Each structure stands twice: as C-alpha cells, then as structure tokens.
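Suppose a colleague, Dr. K., hands you the sequence of a protein chain of 152 amino acids and asks what its three-dimensional shape might be. Before reaching for any lab equipment, you can write down a predicted structure in token form. Begin with the sequence itself:
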Amino acid sequence: MNKGVAIALSSIGVAQGLKIPIHYMKEKEWKPELFIATGGMPSSHSAGVSSLATYIALKRGVPTIDFALAVVFGLIVMYDAQGIRRQTGELTLKVNDLDELIDKIHKDDPVAYEEQPDNPLKEVLGHKPAEVVGGALLGVLLGMAGYYLGRK
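The predicted structure, expressed as tokens, is then:
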C-alpha cells in the first residue's frame, strides 16, 4: 500500500479512537460508538489530510506539486469539516425538536409549548475550530512519526 495513504488512514483511525477517552474525560460517559461517529475532538478529517501533507513535505519536499496539492485539498477538507457538516448537525437538532413536537400533537397529549428565543443558525459552521486545529496538530505529529519511523 502507498505509505502516504497508510499514514493518512492510520491518522484518521487514531483520531477516531481518541474521541472515546476524550469524551469520557469530559462527560464521564463511556461511548465506544464514537469510533464510527462524525464530529467531535479531534477532527479525523483534519488529522488525515494534515498527516498526508506532512508526510509529503518530509518525503518529497515543500516546493513540490505533491505538497501543494495536499495542502490545498487539505485546507478545503478542513474548511468543509468546519462548515457544511456542522450546519447540517445544527439543522438536524432543530428538525428533531419539531419531530418530537409533532409526535406529542398526534397523541392528543396536551402540549406545553414554550416559545424560545429565535437563535439563527450560525454562519461559521462545521467542527468547532478547536477540533479542527486539534486534528491538524495530531495529523502533523502522526505524519512526522510515520515518515521518521519508516525511514531506512
């Protein structure tokens, strides 16, 4: 297998695995299903693309087209992870609340509706910036480790 692909995929796996103990430390709740969940700290998107770009920089050099492609596509992936994906999650929360309200109405239960202040969806979307940065830093470290451990 291509070493860059192996390092990037391994970084994604490590980032996904780290979500479990990080969540446990914050929430005191053990959730192994976070390994296959999206979102959270650290961003596996950022870890994957950052480890690949780091590996390419060390293996081929910063002035190469390979590194330029990895950086540009990596930045697009991280921007998207911090953008559209988060917006979708916030919209889903609002839709789920509506679904619960409709279920109560259909059961002829008295519905206590409490109007909440209008909170428009955020324009800065996706993973929280700290999650993206955390994933990027993890990726740089894992990309360096993969490069230096694989040298002969």
